[in-house]
Amino acid sequence: MNNSTTTSSPARTPSKNAMVNFPSSRPAKKARHLCSLGTGEVIHVLAYTALKDRVDDFEFVVQGLARCLYTMESAVTDVRVCHPCCGEVVFIVTFVSKAALSRFLLGPQRDFETQLEGLITTSGATKKPSFQASGTMMPAAHTLDSLLDFLKTTVKGDDHTAHDVRTVSKEIERWFPRPSEYEKYITIDPANPNKYTRNLIHGDENMDVILMCWPAGCQSSIHDHDSSSCWVTVVEGTVHEVQFQLPRLDKKFLEAEQKDPANAVGQCGRLKIVNIASLNTGGVTGTYANNDIGIHRVENRSEKLACTLHVYAPPLKKMKIFDEDGNVHVHLATKNSEGGCDGGDGCDPNVCVLRKGIFDVDAWNQPNRVK
Ligand SMILES: [Fe+2]
Questions:
Q1: Distance, CA 358 to ligand 1 centroid (Å)?
Q2: Which pairing describes strands 131-136 and 197-203: parallel, antiparallel, or unpaired?
């Protein structure tokens, strides 16, 4: 062991809880802190240095300790032993949890230090490593920019059937939203401060990525998603998603839609609620919808502003809006992409309602407040 060496035990990666509210599954509750996006594993780094005149004895003991760690199976997912030179060793051990690390500190590590007593340098007290640190494994979390890069290269196609829904959902859930990334997209319309707003973060031929801001008590209309996929993740606060079965559409409406796909008006069957999901940063954070799954309404039942990130792919050019009296009409999505404000000099983003991006306040909102 004269050169730097690393060896690992067979990796045993704990399964991660799904965070997306797929209709067929019930995701486990899990708070979204940065580390909760990872596996929950804890890495422990432990370094020892031999006294100059005890190097041989130190090496003898260290070989035994390394052998002991390599053969540990319970509660350990990975072991690396770095041996820069005779007289120095660094153990890097990955535990399945903080509790497993605590058991190691009270058991095997104490035993190691007993064996190394009198052989190692110390910083004052005896039987202590020259360096020790432990912490939760940092996850491969996205920034908003890296998430957008992923979406731009991955989400393509003419309709929702082209998408790998679970893969995209997992990547979206890897975004750890920081206010410094998304605050500039938060807008409340001063003329309609109780209505939700849609603020374009990124748009291309394959998708629109939109930050939606939900003032307390507001709700969207009940709507479908045409041929698009719709991924949603909560950025801050809590919203409820009320999922409905796609209702039967009246024959006259279907005929009207064939003649004029952009302006059809008609009747639909009774709306049936199939699920109500609470989406928040401390539990289930995301959902996904397309017309094969059903239609939905998003509500802010809380007293605080909520923000959600939506990915519509391809961009939603039109949608059907339903009401509980059995009416349905086609609505065209409106984008302030032509002639809108660039957000340049003199633009106050807190009051500007002309910024480029979707800002179609009236039609997308349901006029009444959440009961
Ligand atoms: Fe939607």
A1: 14
A2: unpaired
